[in-house]
Amino acid sequence: MLSSKIVTIRKAHNCFCCGRKFEIGTKMECLVCVDGVIYTLYTCLACYGIINSFPEKIVDEIENIVRRGDFYELRGSDPKYKGMTPEELLSCLEAEKQVNDN
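^ thats the sequence. predicted structure below, dont judge the formating
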């Protein structure tokens, strides 16, 4: 990874992780990567929050999980997470962490 920053997008992008489409004016993480060629990925702020705040919940490399179409593989292992949007999942994980920290 060459760089990572939060940007306000100037054209519509799909989130690399959840696949949802985000319109102009949305804040997203912009990743500039290199793997033989330089490329850019965009991640919504909910997915960004999960990846950065709960890396232990991501059970495989991001690219492999996305290829399988199940970014939140943890949802399949725990039925309470199944079907949650990234925002709902992030909120749930943050609440669980707060309870566990107290």
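Confidence is low (pLDDT under 50) at residues 60-69.
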